[in-house]
């Protein structure tokens, strides 16, 4: 079995460290670094050494479960599907409360390695404030499994609860990892592509709105100013035709360039909702691009993802399906049109295009709107364990801040303001909270041709 250097080092350290006195091992490795294969390699080493009899894995989705089963079968040469002859089984976290007593007795009757993928989904440490999945781990696994392996690419939570099976320093409450492997090292070692994040902004935005009987026109020098000083929301802009077309065009041109030397390279568009996904698909079709849609409503989502993984379709449009743990190595370009603005989700989406597979696919490209929180997340990508997140403290909601050094605009021949779709409604969401604007009857947003792009080359 061929392993990357970091995977071999992590396995060696875990084999030495795991013991009856120290049965838990926590590994943080950047998304797309190969955590699942490392876990399979550790399981193989423990099986060969006669230290375990069975392997049980848990993960947050059926898509990740399928990937785990495939990887472990490849490494171990034995199935992990729970059927006769298998070396173990894999389940979703959602299934844990429904497993019967006979299943949990396996932990008492056999020497079991329990693997928890994306463990940050499980809040633990205290049975009172843990979530349901964390409670299951605390009550049924923590003191019964021979060994546990906890894996995460983004090991923090946006609430005050700690992660199950994790240790935190005293008194600062900083997460303590047994093994860490960051993005900088992964890029240097050739395990991950180097991320290139392109943020689209506009230096001349016009807003026309009518409040009661008064009609008013306002101008803004950036997307951030528009969002900060008007009723327009980030989600409004994600449905704005001009913004969608601009971002899709940028991503399309880059994917075309990439496919000139990587023939089957694919692109991912992360949409806001199902209706939004179909709208994006219609725009791509108009541009002559083929695409496939997978959403949480798709009964055959896993099958469609598999078809895309092994096919040559250019684009896959996702709603809640391809964010963490889903392995599609040919994805190399992403257009981020999701309304979700959390640093964890943003990093997990970026991780979908970082998995390297050839010598000539060095870079991954993500395109997004220059919304202030998205800009902040993008600038922090190089920090694998942000000190203000991987601690046991409340994460404060990010507030809009004035633009800093907006840079020079990309002047185009035409400065004419374009017509955009009308944004109607009396309630708008600002920074994740609903706010009422009862006096706004209607509003329209127009973008000039003076778009600018900010390129963030992390490594």
UniProtKB/TrEMBL annotation:
Name listed for the protein in its UniProt record: DEAD/DEAH box helicase
Any one GO molecular-function label of the UniProt entry: hydrolase activity
Major enzyme class: hydrolase
Taxonomic source organism: Modicisalibacter luteus
Gene3D superfamilies, per database record: P-loop containing nucleotide triphosphate hydrolases (3.40.50.300)
Record keywords: ATP-binding, Helicase, Hydrolase, Nucleotide-binding
SUPFAM superfamilies linked: P-loop containing nucleoside triphosphate hydrolases
PANTHER family membership: ATP-DEPENDENT HELICASE IRC3-RELATED (PTHR47396:SF1), TYPE I RESTRICTION ENZYME ECOKI R PROTEIN (PTHR47396)
Domain Helicase/UvrB N-terminal, first and last residues per copy: 1-79
């Amino acid at each position: 079995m061929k392993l990357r250097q970091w995977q071999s080092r992590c396995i060696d350290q875990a084999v030495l460290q795991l013991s009856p006195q120290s049965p838990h091992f926590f590994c943080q490795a950047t998304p797309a670094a190969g955590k699942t294969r490392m876990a399979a390699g550790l399981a193989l080493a423990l099986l060969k050494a006669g230290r375990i009899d069975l392997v049980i894995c848990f993960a947050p989705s059926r898509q990740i479960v399928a990937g785990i089963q495939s990887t472990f079968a490849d490494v171990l040469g034995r199935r992990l599907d729970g059927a006769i002859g298998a070396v173990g089984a894999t389940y979703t976290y959602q299934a844990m409360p429904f497993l019967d007593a006979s299943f949990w007795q396996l932990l008492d009757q056999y020497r079991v390695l329990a693997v928890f993928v994306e463990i940050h989904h499980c809040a633990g440490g205290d049975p009172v404030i843990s979530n349901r999945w964390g409670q299951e781990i605390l009550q049924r696994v923590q003191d019964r499994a021979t060994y546990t392996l906890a894996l995460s690419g983004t090991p923090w939570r946006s609430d005050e609860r700690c992660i199950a099976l994790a240790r935190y320093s005293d008194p600062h409450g900083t997460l303590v990892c047994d093994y860490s492997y960051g993005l900088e090292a992964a890029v240097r070692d050739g395990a991950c592509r180097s991320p290139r994040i392109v943020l689209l902004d506009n230096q001349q935005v016009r807003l026309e709105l009518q409040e009661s009987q008064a009609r008013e026109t306002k101008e803004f020098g950036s997307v951030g100013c528009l969002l900060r000083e008007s009723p327009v929301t980030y989600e409004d802009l994600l449905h704005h035709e001009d913004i969608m077309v601009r971002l899709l065009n940028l991503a399309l041109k880059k994917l075309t360039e990439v496919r000139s030397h990587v023939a089957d390279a694919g692109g991912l568009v992360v949409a806001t909702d199902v209706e939004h996904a179909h709208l994006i698909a219609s725009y791509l079709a108009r541009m002559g691009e083929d695409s496939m849609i997978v959403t949480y409503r798709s009964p055959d989502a896993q099958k469609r993802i598999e078809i895309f993984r092994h096919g040559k379709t250019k684009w896959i449009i996702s709603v809640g399906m391809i964010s963490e743990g889903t392995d599609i190595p040919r994805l190399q370009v992403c257009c981020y049109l999701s309304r979700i603005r959390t640093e964890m989700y943003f990093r997990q989406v970026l991780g979908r295009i970082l998995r390297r597979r050839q010598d000539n696919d060095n870079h991954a490209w993500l395109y997004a709107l220059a919304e202030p929180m998205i800009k902040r997340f993008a600038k922090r990508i190089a920090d694998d364990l942000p000190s203000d997140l991987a601690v046991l403290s409340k994460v404060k909601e990010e507030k809009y801040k004035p633009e800093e050094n907006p840079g020079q605009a990309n002047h185009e021949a035409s400065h004419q303001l374009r017509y955009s779709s009308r944004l109607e409604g009396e309630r708008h969401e600002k920074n994740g909270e609903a706010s009422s604007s009862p006096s706004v009857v209607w509003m329209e947003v127009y973008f000039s041709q003076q778009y600018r792009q900010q390129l963030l080359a992390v490594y």
